[in-house]
Amino acid sequence: MRHAVRALVLMIFAAFAGAATAQAQQPAGPVSGLPVPRFVSLKADKVVVRIGPAKTHDVKWLYQRAGLPVEITAEFENWRRIRDSDGTEGWVYHSLLSGRRTGVVAAKSKDDLVPAYQSADAKSDVAAQLQPGVLASVKRCSGTWCRINGQGFDGWVAQDRLWGVYPNEKVE
What we know:
The protein folds into two domains: 27-100, SH3 Domains (SH3 type barrels, Roll), CATH 2.30.30.40; 103-163, SH3 Domains (SH3 type barrels), CATH 2.30.30.40. Helices cover 13% and strands 40% of the residues. The chain has one helix and 14 strands, in the order αββββββββββββββ. Strand 11 (135-141) and strand 12 (145-150) form a beta hairpin.
């Protein structure tokens, strides 16, 4: 009798484990009803990135910078697969992400400075010279220019110099 109970418990455990594994292997899809891919930002100062869409998966990475832009590349239930500007990917719980748009300044080479202009025109006065990696709030984008601001600067940058917006994307 004892062996029968033990076998039954093991069978129940195996059934639950199999169901959980099958559920974790389902293809990701747009469960939020929002477009995938899309850019968002990290809401918290500490965001744990996991190798899969569940708290039982190992931690892959820890972000420690709220506001950092990330791209959602897939969705599974309340989990979002994200990619950062370096190409690192992993899964994050949805409540750790914000719809607030931000961008990271991207220069053609690491020593270049990116000009932020007074208006959306390369002939206007330069408001600031930004180093690669500077984090900015994206206020709006026309498809070629983005108005950004951050600590000590406010201006317009060429849209292709900003990671966190798509080419030709319009942001209102």
